[in-house]
Each structure stands twice: as C-alpha cells, then as structure tokens.
Amino acid sequence: MNDHDLTVTRQTFDEVMVPVFSPAAFVPDRGLGSRVWDTQGRDYIDFAGGIAVTALGHAHPELLKVLAEQGGKLWHIGNGYTNEPVLRLAKRLEALTFADRAFFANSGAEANEAALKLARRVAFDRHGVEKDEIISFTQSFHGRTFFTVSVGGQPKYSEGFGPVPQGIVHLPYNDIEAARKAIGAKTCAVIVEPIQGEGGVIPADPAFLKALREACDQHGALLIFDEVQTGVGRSGYFYAYEDTGVTPDILTTAKALGNGFPIGAMLTTEALAAHFKVGVHGTTYGGNPLGAAIAEKVVELISDPKLLEGVRSRSVALKDHLAELNERFGIFKEVRGKGLLIGAELTDAFKGRAKDFVTAAGQHGVIMLMAGPDVVRFVPSLIMPLDDMNEGFARLAKAIEAVVGATADAPAR
C-alpha cells in the first residue's frame, strides 16, 4: 500500500471502522489548551474535554515534558517488575485519600471490574459463597465490560449479549428507603457514583450516601464509589467523596487521571487489598511507567488547592453563562452538577433533542456532550481560560438560536 492510499477523511470511518460510534462530521487534528483545530483548520472551543478526560487541556507543557522524558527511558516492562513512576503515583494518591493500597489498570471499566471482583472475593473469604449480591442504581454507568455493563443501571447497554451475571440488583438513585430495604445479609457491595454522569448529571443527596454507608456497615458490605468521572478535581474537590461526609471502602478513578493517556486505578485499604493475593487478578499494561509518570504529574498539578479553587470559581462563571442563555432562550428546565461537571436539562418542548444542540454547537465551533437524550453536559478543562469560556458561550448562543429558530419555523404537525 502506498502513502497515497492512506489519505483519510470522515468518510473513511464508515469504510474501515466497526460502526459502534457515530462521530461528528469534522475530524479533530490538534489541540492547545481549550481549543481544538480540525483537519480543515477550523477552530473549536472544547466544552467536552474528551468526555471529562483532558482536565488540564490539550498539549499541557508540563505533561509534554514528562511524556518526552519518560518516553525516552521506559514505556513498558510488564507486571513481573515494578517501576518508580507507578510507586510515586501510588504514594501521591494514597496521601490524598483514605486509601493505603492501589491497583492500576487502563480504564474506568477495568478499575470498576477490579473493584467488583475484590468486593466479591472479600465476601467469599470472610463470609462464604452466599454473600455475593451487588447493588447498583438505575441510570448508573460503570463501564463497557460485560460485568460492569451488567452492574450499570442502563439495560440498553447489556441487552442482546446473552445471560447477564447473577446477583446484581438495581435500585432507584437517591431513594434511602429502597436502599435500606434492599441492603442485607447477602449484599457484598454497593457501587454508586457521587454524581451520576452518563445518567444525566444527577448529584447524590449526602443523606442518601450516609444511609448507604450505614447500611453497608450494618451488613458487612463494602461501599464502592465510582469516581471515574467525578474524580481528579472535576467536582472542585480532588475526589468528590471528600465533600460528602462519607468515606467509601473502595474508590475507582480514571478519565482525567492521565489527561488522555489511558490509565485507571482502584484505591482501597490495606485490610481489603490483602484479599487480592498474588495471581488473583492482573493486567498487562496497567501501571506501565509511561502512563504512571504522566498521571503522577497530573495528580501533582490538579491536587494544588489553588487549581481546585479555580474549578469552583469557573463553576460559578459557567452556571452564570447558562442562566444568561436561559433568560434569552428559555430552553433549560434545570441546571445540575458540581464543579465543572454540569448538566443542563432541556425543557419539555425540546425533550429528546440534546443531540440536535450538540450537532449545532459543532457547526458553530463548539465541542459539546450530552448526558442522555434530554441533557447537554459541560465538562471543560479545569483550567479553561475565561476568555475561551466566554467565546464558547457566544458561539453556543448562535447554535441554540439556529436550533430554536428551525424549531419555530417547522410546520405544526
């Protein structure tokens, strides 16, 4: 094959890729800070952050430096050896949290897989085979492996793949009574997002999380916080649990941890970690020196109290922009979330049309996300310059105007 045959466009996707995604019409080519340029040279303001991943923006100079330095030393060595970057990363995460043991993987799904397997193993060792029930919540999202998708509370993702693993119960989110009734002697773990991300950006009521903690303690079950999306500064705290008054037994983290380099982690206590003996669980790439070195720098930068204060002030600015848009267009029923994980739920007149707004935003130079069909989601860089935020909202206003105008012009049915 000559180089001429390797010319690619958006059309190439439909010719060479398994069609599990439906990507935008433009092809991003490079990014800097909170701006992205496509292959045609058009620029976009990035409110999506690669789905809450590029928390320090694109091409961050300190991360590029670490990438080059570690890239010239050692990328991968395998799990028959340890390495200095992964040990430093573990020490940093443990110093910042309740945890004193870490397991590194490549993604949030893998971190959740490890957490769920650990919870089952702890219950098996301590109580026997009967205690195997995992409780999660409707509309939750915990990953795309078969186990995590079965535990997740969105049946559309697990249907059509054969029998799902047994012993999984789904309860309504934020329903204290239902949780108290369901958590019992058979429960080995409860897994919960402190803010449901994919499910529509729905924060947990602190009283609900406290009730889960109490019920888990009462019945010898483990409480797992899935902080894949809420973690690493996104909520205005390094991990969202810090602002809930509740400490989990296991915490999972990924997305922003590597700012786009694939890495995830499961954090837990020494006593629980002891149930994962040599050979009980594993990974080939997890904790590789290149990913760990990048993540260590990410953790150092994002755990800075000044940066976290900046997340909270940007949160106010972003909500103010949304309030202005709503005064003008009246399209949002509710704005929810914390820090820079914000969801704006559309009014009934625009129900099911979040995708239309995301598509129009792209046409007007803004990269956006949805959180289900009725919610537009904002997860920009945690250090987004306010000038970029202002420019993004000016462009977004034009996109909303286009959608609202087209709706007004549409013939009545």
TrEMBL record:
The cross-references to Pfam families, in alphabetical order and at most eight, read: Aminotran_3 (PF00202)
Instruction: Please provide the Gene Ontology terms (biological process) for this protein.
Output: L-arginine biosynthetic process
Where is the protein localized?
Cytoplasm
Pathway per the UniProt entry: Amine and polyamine biosynthesis; ectoine biosynthesis; L-ectoine from L-aspartate 4-semialdehyde: step 1/3; Amino-acid biosynthesis; L-arginine biosynthesis; N(2)-acetyl-L-ornithine from L-glutamate: step 4/4
Q: Enumerate the Gene3D superfamilies for this protein.
A: Aspartate Aminotransferase, domain 1, Type I PLP-dependent aspartate aminotransferase-like (Major domain)
Additional observations: May also have succinyldiaminopimelate aminotransferase activity, thus carrying out the corresponding step in lysine biosynthesis.
Protein name (Swiss-Prot/TrEMBL): Acetylornithine aminotransferase
Lineage at the top is: Bacteria, Pseudomonadati, Pseudomonadota, Betaproteobacteria, Burkholderiales
